[in-house]
Specification:
about 35% strand; 2 domains; N-terminal domain of TfIIb; five-stranded mixed β-sheet; seven-stranded mixed β-sheet; globular; Rossmann fold
């Protein structure tokens, strides 16, 4: 059955009397916890293998001698799982739900429940990663600066920091689009992105989990993303790193049309 027909079938069931029960609804004012969406994350997003290959290649080129890697906002461990055979991997995240999944996927990884804004762990690393637009969840630019400072402190001399962002252009495009409807298994996800203050975006995620023929459980979570101008980000990075390279994975070079950017920053 096609995803479109599956979505229509589920939507039809919801319209004609399916019972929505045991709803769990979380409205978050700070960093997102992913405590609701976390257990559905892999089913919706897949194994992220292609993205993991892209990050791995950036790491290989940027720091060929790297042996130790720390990932900020490691989520369910998709990147760490891909890297674990080549590196000694560690990760941190705020979501206990996602970390519990990561511990099963990447049993050799050292995992920490900490905030990327003020994390402090023992040891220094050849490379620090922060991908899948995780830094976009940090709402204040003053906190982005704190992340950059913490990363520098946790890098070995000559180490590199690789992270990606959703640009302001991409967030604006999502805000203008209609809600995204995505069936997975017998469940249905509906995601609507709306504007919030300071050029931010609120991602309202509703998962209708199929329980019985006409019974669904609603799980809802709000996740905020913000972005900032390229020049502002570069200025902050250059306060901590000796060189910064910006890559648009879809273009020869970054432009005002870029929607996703990678930053590769080197520590002295």
């Amino acid at each position: 059955m096609s995803s479109g027909s599956a979505a229509r079938r589920t939507a039809r069931q919801l319209r004609v009397g399916a019972k929505i029960a045991d709803s769990r609804i979380v409205k978050l004012d700070g960093m997102p916890s992913y405590e609701i969406f976390g257990r559905f994350y892999d089913a919706v997003m897949g194994d992220r293998a292609e993205s993991a290959k892209q990050v791995s290649e950036l790491l290989r080129v940027s720091k060929p001698s790297a042996r130790t890697v720390l990932e900020l906002g490691c989520g369910t461990g998709s990147i760490l799982k891909y890297l674990q055979d080549s590196y000694e991997v560690s990760g941190l995240d705020l979501s206990s739900k996602m970390l519990s999944i990561a511990r099963k996927k990447v049993p050799r990884a050292k995992l920490f429940r900490q905030d990327m804004v003020d994390f402090q762990i023992e040891g220094r690393f050849d490379a620090v990663l922060c991908v899948f637009d995780s830094i976009n969840h940090v709402r204040r630019f003053s906190d982005w600066k704190k992340v950059f400072a913490r990363v520098r402190q946790h890098l070995l001399p000559g180490g590199c920091f690789i992270f990606d962002i959703n640009t302001q252009r991409k967030l604006e495009r999502h805000i203008a689009e209609r809600p995204w409807v995505h069936p997975f298994g017998r469940n249905l996800l509906i995601m609507e992105v709306t504007a919030v203050a300071n050029h931010g975006s609120n991602w309202n995620i509703k998962v209708f989990e199929h329980v019985t023929r006409a019974r669904y459980v609603l799980h809802e979570e709000d996740i905020v993303e913000v972005s900032f101008p390229l020049g502002k980000i570069l200025g902050a990075l250059r306060s901590h790193f000796v060189s910064v390279r910006v890559v648009d994975p879809n273009r020869r070079r970054p432009t005002e049309k870029s929607e996703r950017l990678f930053f590769i920053a080197k520590r002295p």
